[in-house]
Amino acid sequence: MTEGLLPDLHFDDDDQCYKTDDELGVEDLVASMDRPLSATYQLTRECNLRCTYCSEPPGISSSSLDQHKEKIDKLVGMRRIILSGGEPMDSPYFWEILEYVQRKFELIVLSTNATRIGREEALRLKSMVDYVDVTVDGPRRQHNRIRGQYDAVVDGLMHLRLARIPLSVICVYMPEEKLDGSNLLKTPRPGNRDVIHYICQQGDMLGAKKVKILTPIPKGRSAGFFEDFATGPELEELADFLTAEKKKNGWKVRIVISDWMKIGQGHAWLIEPDGRVIASPVWDQANCLERIGDLSDQSSAELWRRYPYKQQHLAKYLERTLIVR
């Protein structure tokens, strides 16, 4: 593993986040960085589900196996790589890439819908990933209306649990669309705001380290969601409600809520399947994306120097701009 110039941070396995032992502010910590702490690497945009809020729908061509390897080599020195999609396990190169990233990064994370994970896949993943992120958007009825295949997702989660792979459960928090009656043929967009606490119960039952609650990013299939965007006060109210539920029910799972306005713009370093490096979300840009460059012909250090959201990036992954309960 090539060492990168990064501040003295350690990853807390129980809290599933990076921490620092000193009291330096984010600005001082960023000054000692020559590359990102974490990158989300999209293997493919193909997916076997059609989530109503998907911000990363199909439409971008993927790289060849050798091209993926060349780009991944340029990321070496970062602490964490998150293999994502689309659905990363739909990539024909998934297992080869997962094998390739071994020992190149301090942490290897899989972000998946879990529908491709059976007993054999879970046992194979156990020695290859540090933890897995899986999205569940409600109890069966709500989840199936929003993304589908609830039973397959739960089966995958159970296989991960039985294999004792550390797990985070993600939920995208969204309202049910209220129609004004002017279009009787339109089916209202489904929501899950009234059942969000069931996800915390499920995460606790599965032994998840975290339940991470997000709001939609208004791009892709979520492009028209700004009018229903959850406000900061609403998310704080949600946090208070879930804190009371956690105490009442004895949940051990950490509850972490992302308020994009508090986190600020561009915190995520997103590498698209064709190699473009994107800062996301950036509200005043088309599709909430700001292109930083391309790993095909630039180094991660060059791209980091051009990246204007360094403090937002580090603060988010230290959980300093998240609502944590």
Describe the structure in your own words.
It is built from 11 helices and 13 strands. It has 325 residues and is an alpha/beta fold. It has a single domain, classed as Aldolase class I (TIM Barrel), CATH 3.20.20.70. The strands form 2 sheets. Strands 12-11-10-3-4-5-6-7-8-9-13 form an 11-stranded mixed sheet, covered by helices on one side. Helix 4 (119-126) packs across helix 6. The two termini are 35 Å apart.
Ordered list of secondary-structure elements with their pairings:
Layout: E1 9-12, E2 17-20, H1 26-30, E3 38-42, H2 65-75, E4 80-84, H3 94-100, E5 107-112, H4 119-126, E6 131-135, H5 140-146, H6 150-162, E7 167-172, H7 196-205, E8 210-214, H8 232-249, E9 254-257, H9 260-263, E10 268-271, E11 276-280, E12 290-294, H10 300-306, H11 310-317, E13 323-324
Parallel strand pairs: 3-4, 3-10, 4-5, 5-6, 6-7, 7-8, 8-9
Antiparallel strand pairs: 1-2, 9-13, 10-11, 11-12
Strand content: 15-25%
Task: Report the top-level CATH class.
Answer: Alpha Beta
Global structural class: alpha/beta
Q: What integer value in Å does the Rg equal? A: 19 Å
Report the count of strand segments.
13
Kindly, what is the distance between the CA atoms of the first and last residues, rounded to a whole number of angstroms?
35 Å
Shape: globular
Unreliable runs: none
CATH superfamily: Aldolase class I
Question: Given the structure, what is the number of helices?
Answer: 11
Helix percent band: 25-40%
Mean pLDDT over the full residue set: 91
Kindly report the spatial arrangement of strands forming the biggest sheet.
Answer: 12-11-10-3-4-5-6-7-8-9-13
Q: What summary fits the major beta sheet?
A: 11 strands, mixed
Write the element-wise H/E pattern from the N-terminal end onward: EEHEHEHEHEHHEHEHEHEEEHHE
CATH architecture: Alpha-Beta Barrel
What is the domain total for the residues? 1
**CATH topology grouping:** TIM Barrel
